[in-house]
Amino acid sequence: MSGGDIIFRDDRRRQLLFLVLFLFFFSRNVRKVLISLEEKEDESLSKSSNDAKVVPMVIKKLERLNHGPMKTLDPFLFLVYHKDFYPPGDEEMGLKGDARGSGSDFVPDIPYRFYHGHRIPGFPRHPHRGFETITATLDGIIDHTDSIGDAGRYGKGDLQWMTAGSGIQHAEMFPLVNADEENPLRFFQIWLNLPSWKKMSEPEFVMHWKDDVKKIRKKGKEYEIVVWVGQFGDVKVNSNLSATPKNSWASDEANDVGVFYVEMYAEKSREEVRVPKARIESEANRYLYFVEGEEMMINGREKIQKRTGCELDASQSFTVKCTKLSQSQESIRDSDRSRSSSSSGKNKCAFLILQGRPIGEPIRSSGPMVMNTNEELRKAFQDFDRTQFGGWPWKSNDVVFPRAKERFMSVGGKEIFAPKSKR
């Protein structure tokens, strides 16, 4: 082997050694870079995760709302938003013609419904057992009669709370008291369950006249919050009221039952409504019903479209802003002529919140009866067939009071009229 070959081989060895050393150090540096990038990515993810903890998603589920009965969460059983634009009433406070409702006529594209009424819309005599009805009015008049002889006329912002308990029959009729102008009607009917040990309690009802219902108003009338049941932040139903029937699930403040209604009138305003978290936080179920308006924003990032329901995390507060108001048939007509002030005609965004600790018991229901077992349900219908839950002391199944009669309640034969409004 020549000297030149030896020198060439040494050069190749040095080149190979240099290449190995270069690849070794290069790979170490690359590894360091990759580790550094991974650490930064982990740090970024950790920061994003921490940010998510600071501003978590309050909405657990979004769903389309029915035009008839809507989904509810325990402890609630049933919710309907009634909104009708009835014409002027005839001499009997009814609708002209001869029509009868089917009870399922929740068609959104017609101006009004008969429900089960005949000429006078409403719900003639029918039974209930095992729960409570909360009737929260906004516009219009409702005439109430029941099988224990109590009665009332209420509406225009009043709230009636009736415990059906062991069994009652009642009628809810919507007399068209205005003969020379339209009769808008708007209210929520809510069913609140009773726990098993209260289902056979004595029937009763309480009335909250509209001036006693707690309201939170923004100066400048950009929004109004109505506290029908429970506590909204520091605001709770008036303590001077017999606020809830004594056997109600809501009568125990530990159950944090709330029924809150919010109307917002300023489109794309900077103004937001802040909804506080439930007092018992995640122990409560909470659901929001977006019933009026085209679009609103939750926490500045979740866009909610009209007729949407939102299951919410009750452990979090949140903000709501109206981004697109509705314009109802009524408000369009109002722009052409002056009418009496009715909140049904205002452009608005509006939502209802139902919240409360779940009762957590099995439910067996059929129509107007809600019990815990099939046997109890069968017995409820047997008892009604046998006793009629006290019978019916009224002249007809769809009683309405004289047109000129003011709002009143009659309990145990004692008649009390609504106080003259201060507002």
UniProtKB/TrEMBL annotation:
<dbReference type="Pfam" id="PF02678">
    <property type="entry name" value="Pirin"/>
</dbReference>
<protein>
    <submittedName>
        <fullName>Pirin domain-containing protein</fullName>
    </submittedName>
</protein>
<comment type="similarity">
    <text>Belongs to the pirin family.</text>
</comment>
<dbReference type="InterPro" id="IPR011051">
    <property type="entry name" value="RmlC_Cupin_sf"/>
</dbReference>
<feature type="domain" description="Pirin C-terminal">
    <location>
        <begin position="325"/>
        <end position="390"/>
    </location>
</feature>
<feature type="domain" description="Pirin N-terminal">
    <location>
        <begin position="114"/>
        <end position="192"/>
    </location>
</feature>
<dbReference type="InterPro" id="IPR012093">
    <property type="entry name" value="Pirin"/>
</dbReference>
<dbReference type="InterPro" id="IPR003829">
    <property type="entry name" value="Pirin_N_dom"/>
</dbReference>
<dbReference type="InterPro" id="IPR008778">
    <property type="entry name" value="Pirin_C_dom"/>
</dbReference>
<dbReference type="Pfam" id="PF05726">
    <property type="entry name" value="Pirin_C"/>
</dbReference>
<dbReference type="InterPro" id="IPR014710">
    <property type="entry name" value="RmlC-like_jellyroll"/>
</dbReference>
